[in-house]
Design brief:
By secondary structure, this protein is mainly α. The chain is built from eleven helices and four strands. Helix content is 51%, strand content 9%.
Length: 212
């Protein structure tokens, strides 16, 4: 039997005692949840003054949510201490970190904190553009291979063709070319790859294969 638990009804004006049926274990779980801290800031400058007092360890920054928009867009704002620690001078020699910032479109913070990374960022952005151009060019081959009106048959035909003609290292990228939104699928694949430990080495080999 579900026990009845007394609580406050926030829907009424003032505080009211109401009887509600909530499992006791759920009550214990809710009590353990750490709810995010709220900050009183009416604009970006006010918020920046608040988060710049963070040490970057216990508190890295905050998330701004726009509840006036039905889609409730969110934006992460990091404090200066966190950014300086994350983008230290050692980053300059770390191609993996720089390339990852390009894939996740986070290079503005990187350049702001370590300006010397700007040339490398531009180099990697150019490589990413060429890789996406290659991807779109190769995607046109689906029209030559997939001629059926049946999407399932087209998928099978494309898989057979790819396995016979494409190197296994490139297959993951070819497999999404028949998707309804291949560019979005490609972005997701690159982000997944960027989370791997030796991502830069793996992706560099792929760029060599496609002559970039």
């Amino acid at each position: 039997m579900t026990p009845a638990v007394w609580g406050d009804d926030s829907r009424t004006e003032g505080r009211a005692r109401v009887k509600c049926a909530i499992p006791y274990k759920l009550i214990l779980l809710i009590n353990k949840i750490e709810f995010p801290e709220l900050f009183d800031a009416s604009n970006y400058e006010d918020l920046k003054k608040i988060i710049d007092n963070f040490n970057g360890i216990e508190k890295e920054g905050c998330v701004v949510v726009d509840y006036t928009n039905p889609e409730t867009p969110r934006a992460k704002i990091k404090c200066q201490s966190y950014l300086k620690e994350k983008f230290s001078q050692e980053t300059l020699a770390n191609n993996q970190v720089i390339f990852k910032s390009v894939i996740f479109d986070e290079y503005d913070d990187l350049i702001s904190n370590v300006p010397a990374t700007a040339p490398k960022v531009e180099e990697f952005k150019e490589k990413m553009k060429k890789f996406k151009d290659w991807f779109l060019s190769e995607s046109s081959k689906t029209k030559e291979v997939c001629k059926s009106n049946n999407p399932v048959e087209n998928k099978k035909a494309w898989v057979i063709w790819c396995k016979a003609n494409i190197k296994k290292e490139l297959l993951p990228y070819y497999m999404v070319m028949t998707d309804s939104n291949p560019e979005e699928k490609l972005d997701n694949k690159l982000k997944q790859l960027a989370m791997k430990k030796h991502f830069y080495e793996i992706f560099s080999k792929i760029l060599e294969m496609v002559k970039i």
